[in-house]
């Protein structure tokens, strides 16, 4: 066996390429200096490289399970939430160019955006509907994760991160609610922050620090603005990064220990294969070697599910979801204007004064009992949500919708959710003047 | 270190502190203390010491300007000033339920947001309000003007007597 000597770069003194040659090779050289692989990969190896070598794509694994791409696995809800968040970042930054967070200016700027600024009305509408959509999508994503048992070991902590992201989303939406400084904004935030006062001991203090005073005024508007455009988005970006990173580190999407419809393979896959095989009992695979041949992944162990290259399968689906997001938001923004009422008037509360819709379940509960409705029960629910994956003792059911093993917890989860939904609906549509019961028809 | 020695160390309460380990603990402790103090100060920074835009003490004019039995509502300050013979009192018009501004009615006050009803003294008659409307201290300034201090909540029924 001969030892290969490393290939040394050519001595610059010799063999300098000609001027014409350099000029002709320039585009290729520039391209190669920016991109590390071909524009359109052709072989399996190049497809892996297209993902792994690209800064923006390398959050993906080179290959994904075919199962992960099926609609019924996730309905793309997490990705849709992320898409809507990106739309909110872009439209939000654009709106910042015209917005001034002061009680004298804010409402005028809203009118300007509505009437004078080119494209202003559209951007504000998109921002508003995307904000509402993000709350809904984040909740639906949470429901999907729970009903498929995807929060169980080893994904407990990622569920906790997700719950925090949901809370941040709500806070984000709530801080944004005040910024138009119209009657709706002013009284929704007055009522919303008044709920915080029912917290024992620290309630008044929290409200005082949040508002920068005792009333919703100039300081409160400035504080909500800073929270809305800097503090909360930054916190969300960090947690979103952590959330995505953990998805991969925890072994991708949750899936059943044995793929559906396939018998367990006794010789290679032991019967007691752990349900959470972060590192499956598969002999080390060499992706580079496998990728050379455009065939299926060699079946070497328990992992018998078909995998496909992320490029183009996963990327195409992501692009499709982004297109759907943008299309629906644009249509909504063209069809419906974001609400804007008269300028905030602290001496004339509307009747009834309502918090933002996602807090109306809370407000409904507050109307029965202030402490338990506003602080006690919501705090208990958040605590329960944070501990949910640690409280579920029985293993199994991962990656399967409504797994019979988990029917009890699933029903519990769904009934809590349904109760909250009914309370929110009642607070939104069935409460009129003086918070008396009315019907919307 | 052999396993036996390590076991022996553990029984004796671990290896004796070296100069390096002591210095490490001191440095870590100092860093941690500084970080905690900084974090605490930053939190205190966020709590305003003065509130802009909302005065807590409001001058409402000379006692002579109020006729006996009159009730004057100050919409900006969200306070009602009442004169009963020689006695003056100030009652908040911020609903104790969720912070809406209450309206004056024949019986007292009513919150338009969620229907809390109060009597003329601020006591709860109905609705979701958990507490009566607070009363504020009312004093006479050296210049002979009435002054309401919205930060000083006094028991219901506390009056200021002004000899006329």
Could you explain how this protein is built, in words?
- The complex is a heterodimer of chains A (441) and B (164).
- Chain A is mostly helical.
- Chain A has a single domain (63-255, 313-435), classed as Up-down Bundle (Cytochrome Bc1 Complex, Chain C), CATH 1.20.810.10.
- Chain A has helices at residues 19-34, 44-52, 66-69, 71-74, 77-96, 106-115, 120-147, 156-178, 183-196, 203-211, 218-249, 287-292, 310-335, 360-368, 370-391, 407-429; strands at 63-65, 307-309.
- In chain A, strands 1-2 form a two-stranded antiparallel ribbon.
- Chain B is an alpha+beta fold and 164 residues long.
- Chain B has two domains: 3-46; 57-161, 3-layer Sandwich (Rieske Iron-sulfur Protein).
- Chain B has two helices and eleven strands.
- In chain B, strands 1, 2, 3, 4, 9, 10 and 11 form a seven-stranded antiparallel β-sheet that branches.
- In chain B, a hairpin with a 2-residue loop joins β3 and β4 (87-92).
- The longest helix of chain B has 28 residues, at 19-46.
- Chain B is elongated.
- The relative contact order of chain B is 0.13.
- The A-B interface holds A 187, 190-191, 193-195, 197, 205, 208-209, 212-215, 217-219, 346-353, 363, 366-368, 370, 433-436 and B 46-48, 51-54, 75-76, 78, 97-101, 111-115, 127-128, 130.
Summarize the structure.
The complex is a heterodimer of chains A (441) and B (164). Chain A has 441 residues and is mainly α.
Q: Largest interface, with Cβ-Cβ < 8 Å?
A: A-B, 34 and 23 residues
Superfamily at the CATH H level of chain A?
Cytochrome Bc1 Complex, Chain C
CATH A-level architecture of chain A: Up-down Bundle
Distance between the termini of chain B: 94 Å
List unreliable stretches of 5+ residues of chain B: none
């Amino acid at each position: 066996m001969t030892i290969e000597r490393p290939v040394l770069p050519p001595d610059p003194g010799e063999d300098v390429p000609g001027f014409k040659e350099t000029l002709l090779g320039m585009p290729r050289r520039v391209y190669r200096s920016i991109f590390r692989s071909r524009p359109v990969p052709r072989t399996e190896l190049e497809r892996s490289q297209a993902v792994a070598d690209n800064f923006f794509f390398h959050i993906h694994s080179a290959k994904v399970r075919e199962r992960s791409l099926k609609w019924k696995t996730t309905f793309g809800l997490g990705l849709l939430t992320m898409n809507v968040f990106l739309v909110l970042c872009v439209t939000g930054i654009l709106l910042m160019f015209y917005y001034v967070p002061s009680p004298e200016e804010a409402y005028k700027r809203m009118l300007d955006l509505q009437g004078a600024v080119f494209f202003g009305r559209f951007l504000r509408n998109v921002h508003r509907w995307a904000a509402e959509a993000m709350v809904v999508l984040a909740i639906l994503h949470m429901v999907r994760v729970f009903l498929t048992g995807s929060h169980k070991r080893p994904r407990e902590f990622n569920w906790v991160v997700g719950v925090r992201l949901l809370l941040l989303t709500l806070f984000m939406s709530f801080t944004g609610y005040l910024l138009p400084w119209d009657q709706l904004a002013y009284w929704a935030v007055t009522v919303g922050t008044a709920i915080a006062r029912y917290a024992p001991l620290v309630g008044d203090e929290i409200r005082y620090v949040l508002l920068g005073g005792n009333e919703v005024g100039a300081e409160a508007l400035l504080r909500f603005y800073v929270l809305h455009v800097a503090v909360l988005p930054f916190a969300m970006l960090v947690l979103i990064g952590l959330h995505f990173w953990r998805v991969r580190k925890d072994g991708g999407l949750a899936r059943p220990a044995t793929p559906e419809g396939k018998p367990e393979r006794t010789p290679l896959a032991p019967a007691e294969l752990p349900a959470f095989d972060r590192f499956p009992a598969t002999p080390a695979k060499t992706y580079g070697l496998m990728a050379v041949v455009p065939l299926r992944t060699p079946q070497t162990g328990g992992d018998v599910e078909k995998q496909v290259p992320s490029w183009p399968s996963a990327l195409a689906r992501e692009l499709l979801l982004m297109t759907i997001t943008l299309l629906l938001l644009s249509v909504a923004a063209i069809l419906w204007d974001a609400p804007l009422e008269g300028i905030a008037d602290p001496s004339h509360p509307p009747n009834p004064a309502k918090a933002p819709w996602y807090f109306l379940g809370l407000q409904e509960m507050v109307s029965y009992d202030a402490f338990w409705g506003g602080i006690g029960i919501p705090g208990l629910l958040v605590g329960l949500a944070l501990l949910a994956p640690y409280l579920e003792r029985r293993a199994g059911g991962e990656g399967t919708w409504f797994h019979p093993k988990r029917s009890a917890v699933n029903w519990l989860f769904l009934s809590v959710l349904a109760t909250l939904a009914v309370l929110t609906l009642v607070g939104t549509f069935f409460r009129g003047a003086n918070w008396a019961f009315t019907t919307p028809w | 270190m052999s396993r036996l020695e390590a076991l022996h160390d553990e029984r004796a309460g671990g290896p004796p502190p070296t100069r390096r380990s002591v210095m490490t603990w001191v440095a870590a402790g100092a860093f941690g203390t500084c970080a905690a103090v900084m974090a605490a100060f930053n939190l205190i920074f966020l709590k305003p010491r003065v509130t802009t835009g909302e005065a807590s003490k409001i001058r409402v004019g000379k006692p002579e300007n109020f006729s006996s039995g009159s009730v004057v509502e100050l919409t900006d300050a969200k306070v009602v000033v009442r004169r009963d013979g020689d006695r003056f009192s100030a009652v908040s018009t911020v609903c104790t339920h969720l912070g809406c501004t209450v309206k004056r009615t024949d019986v007292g006050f009513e919150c338009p947001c969620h229907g809390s009803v109060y009597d003329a003294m601020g006591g709860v008659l109905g609705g979701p309000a958990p507490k009566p409307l607070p009363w504020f201290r009312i004093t006479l300034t050296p210049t002979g003007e009435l002054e309401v201090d919205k930060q000083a909540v006094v028991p219901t029924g506390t009056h200021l007597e002004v000899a006329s």
